[in-house]
Amino acid sequence: MLQVNDISKNFGDFKAINDLSFEVKVGDVMGFLGPNGAGKTTSMRVITGYLKSDKGSVVINNKNIDEDPIFTKSMIGYLPEGVPLYLDLSPYLYLDYVCQVREIKNPKTAIKKAISDLQLEEVKDVPIETLSKGFKRRVGIAQALIHNPKLLILDEPTDGLDPLQKFEVRKLITKLSKTKAIIISTHILDEVPEVCNKCLIINNGEKVFEGTPTQLKKKVGKTLDEKFRKLVK
Ligand code: ADP
Ligand code: MG
Description:
The chain is of the alpha/beta class.
């Protein structure tokens, strides 16, 4: 579904990503891990076509994103870091706007499904700015899912949520994973094995580990946090 081939991205002299490659298939949930500043958000911005890489290529459903950006973007659902939303719109009107931008044929049906899947019924008509962090996150995930994308890219989807909200997001990811390829970034290691079948750890823009959560557990240290520290030290 997604092939990332040797991508590099510099900001001036600073190498934010250096020769990063990986692959994600339908059915995969890849935990994209690394400490703050490792290059996770930058990589996701390159994959979604928001930033252009200096080197390498991104291929989605066998199409290079530079050669067919409209088609490849139609395959992607993206929850950007920090969940930018139009705060003066209600979730309903915001999702209606997203449907127009994405030229969704049956917007009413798509909005109804997204509102139901993300349990937004009780807040669908109030301004987004009045919502709690958990509800705002759900609106962000709803807009990422509304066009039923094959590739879902979630940048820190559980960051700042309470334990119950985190549980709900992980449950949703597990449910979605059967029919999609999913990448979730996080700097919190404990979240990973629960929902992921693959892990990729980056540090200073470079891959330092790729494998299953079980392989990660075997590699170093007793706890996942110890492993993480060893791999990124
Ligand atoms: P992560 O998401 O893993 O925390 P980021 O991808 O946000 O990391 O950032 C990786 C590095 O690139 C950081 O050192 C950050 O300061 C730098 N960086 C990110 N975006 C820019 C930018 N637009 N201009 C300059 N430096 C940037
Ligand atoms: Mg980030």
